[in-house]
Amino acid sequence: MTRRHPIEETCGCRSPRRGFLADMGMGFTGLVLGTMLAEDKRAAASQATSAVGTHFPARAKSVIWIFLSGGYSHLETFDPKPALNRYAGMTFDKTPFENPVNSPLHKKRFRSVAADEINIRDVYPTIYPMQVGWRQHGECGIEMTDWWPHLATQIDDLCFVRNMWTTDNDHAAENQIHTGRHRLDEQQPSVGAWADYGLGTLNENLPKFAVLGGPTRSDTRVSIESLYLGPQHAGVPLTLDPKNPLPFGQRHAAQSLEEQRREYELIGQLNALSAVEYPEDQELLARIRAYELAFRMQVAVPEAIDFSQETEATSKLYGIDQEATKTAGQRLLAARRLVERGVRFVQVFPSPYGVWDSHQKLKDNHTKLCGTVDRPVAGLIQDLKQRGLLDETLVVFCTEFGRTPGLELRAGGKDGRDHHPNGFTIWMAGAGLKKGYVHGATDELGYHALGEGHYVTDLHATVLHLLGVDNRQLEVPGRKRLEIDHGQVIHDILT
């Protein structure tokens, strides 16, 4: 015997909404309508935080978030410290400065997974000199090391935050800088997912949150995840293969477009009927949206990453003509093309997992790696600027932590630095930011972020603020975010 829906049993007929949807024959129009009807209750609850400009006018339309995995040395990149050369080979207690290991900031901001009595990381006492020269650049006169000759030409458009800090001293910090939570705590949605959740779309044919070059490993998937916000807000990884830009999203070669359209329509009918019966099923609603978006993306995404439309001069600007800079250049050019087409948040991994992790041979490692991203990142800033996109796009350049001022001694170390969450540097550029500006500082040895410094969620709050979203109003019914999750907007860097 066929089991009837409870409403059918009560009224002796099919549910009006359910019958209407079934009789429509669906198609994509019916599918969208079914989704809208199923979202009635959810929309009422989330209306306040799910549309553009609901909190205040936005300064930026889109974000390009560039993440360098492994932890670049702030000391050999964007926060040069002459004192490291002056006191090289001495221990911290032999310098005229306060021993940073004895500072109360050390315990306040340092959370090791290992027990304190066996943890030796981040406390190496012998000062290791800088491995590269540095000088002032641009009209702003900001100091940067010699490993960034191309980026230095754009320095008058950059805004540095030199007093960032985090708490995880291992590479789970890659997730922490994106989610705001230490690995021992309950995980939270990533900053890209919050942007997706809080903002409306600018292009129905592309995802609001796209990912290029990552996540770098299965255990870093959290860095693009949406968790309790629902899977529809997670980052969508794209590849730069024009023939297969959507992993697992292309139709089979033997299937025609019309055949796939009919297949999706049938799936849409079944999903929408279920959505009427289970309107609060977030997984189902996300699946419906995913099918709709996946079908549209099959045309939109290949066009977005088709570099044949770009000039030779643009390819050279991003370093795509050189093997060393080709990968980063392609990903950053794709990021520009995506935001140009209305993608809200593009998370770019220009380098493989952990390669900036310079426990040994720091000079060789950073010389090579800076060379792979310097030209492409500088090219991105210049390209956005000349196209008038930098005024509406926010570029974020970050890593998970810095490197120790002291020489790493583990495993007979003699030429590297360990992980350093106590103070490091990120920079931003674009919409709503001061240009050629430095906010905050670390101490003379580059150990501690001075003052209150900025925990990683301050960066999240600032990015969302520039997008017109108040991070403190991004609350989900039944979920209470902690104070640290909200962060504080870094108002000093805003115009």
Give me the secondary-structure category.
alpha/beta
Instruction: Write the H/E string, N to C.
Output: HHHHEHHEEHEHHEEHHHHEHEEEEEEHH
Number of domains: 2
Number of strands: 13
End-to-end distance, in Å?
A: 69 Å
Overall body shape? globular
Helix proportion: 25-40%
CATH-assigned fold name of the largest domain:
Alkaline Phosphatase, subunit A
What's the total helix number? 16
Largest sheet: 9 strands, mixed
Architecture of the largest domain, CATH level 2? Answer: 3-Layer(aba) Sandwich
Mean pLDDT: 86
> In CATH's first tier, which class of the largest domain applies?
Alpha Beta
Radius of gyration: 25 Å
* Uncertain segments: 1-53
The CATH homology group name of the largest domain:
Alkaline Phosphatase, subunit A
What proportion of the residues form beta strands (DSSP E)? 5-15%
What does this structure look like?
The chain has about 500 residues and is α/β, with parallel strands linked by helices. It folds into 2 domains: about 20-50 and about 255-305; about 60-240 and about 320-495, Alkaline Phosphatase, subunit A, CATH 3.40.720.10. About 35% of the residues lie in helices and about 10% in strands. The chain has 16 helices and 13 strands. The chain has helices at about 5-10, 15-25, 25-40, 40-45, 80-85, 105-110, 150, 175-180, 190-200, 255-275, 280-305, 310-315, 325-340, 360-385, 455-465, 485, and strands at about 60-70, 135, 140-145, 160-165, 210, 235-240, 345-350, 395-400, 400-405, 420, 425-430, 435-440, 455. The strands form 3 sheets. Strands 1, 4, 5, 6, 7, 8, 11, 12 and 13 form a 9-stranded mixed sheet that branches. Residues about 1-55 have low confidence and may be disordered.
